Amino acid sequence: MTRIAILASGSGSNAESIMKAFENSNIIQISLVISNNSNAGVLARADKFNVPNVVINSAQAKEGLLLQALLNSGADYIVLAGYMKLIPKSIIAAFEKKILNIHPALLPKFGGKGMYGENVHKAVAEAKEKESGITIHFVNNNYDEGAILFQKRVALSSLDSYKEIGAKVLKLEHEFSPQIIEKTILNAAH
How far apart are CA 81 and CA 43, in angstroms? Predict the structure, then answer.
């Protein structure tokens, strides 16, 4: 059984789609949900699926508590599902090629520091892009620069607001994130 820890900062709808997909899996188990935000909706979603969850703020993460929690959970992989903090280098080293990020745009466009959530969708709308989508990639020491595993595109209308763009992209995240996580884990096992 491969164990996954999910890191999320917000409502957790994407984390929920992942927890739901693997709820009865014989291959993958969600072992822990970690948030840096004690008010994050993802914590209640984790409770709903009986997944242990913990809040670790940035200062605690720097002290090594984040790495300790991941190791204690037995996590083999980490999935970032709307996690708004840079992952410490110690964790990237301990989980090399085992940290996946779900980014709400088509990298390399609209990536980097500050490019998350609504910021991404506002930038896409302002640039009058004809398409957006999701990118699932490995995490390295630089924001949104790790090797790309998967991209899925969605057409945009010039009339789409940033909220409508966000809704279209979120639908892709919910549909494809569990599939790509499972495929990545199965491919690594062979």
Answer: 13
pLDDT at 98: 97
Please report, for residues 19, 24, 64, 117, 136, the alpha-carbon distance to residue 1 in angstroms, rounded to integers and kept in the order given: 15, 12, 26, 32, 22
The answer to pTM > 0.70 is yes
Could you say which of 103, 121, 137, 174 is catalytic? 103
The DSSP bridge partners found for residue 5 are 32, 78
Q: How far is CA 43 from CA 40, 48, 55, 85, in A?
A: 6, 9, 9, 17
103 noted as active-site residue: yes
Structure tokens given for 11: 């409502």
Interstrand relation of 99-103 and 77-80 (parallel, antiparallel or unpaired):
parallel
Contact between residue 7 and residue 34 where contact means Cβ atoms under 8 Å apart: yes
Contacts of 72 (CB under 8 A, 6+ apart): none
Given a cut of 90, whether residue 91 has pLDDT beyond it is yes
CB 42 within 8 A of CB 12: yes
Radius of gyration of the chain, Cα coordinates, nearest whole angstrom: 16
Of the chain, the percentage scoring pLDDT greater than 70 comes to 100
How far apart are the C-alpha atoms of 4 and 24, rounded to whole Å?
14
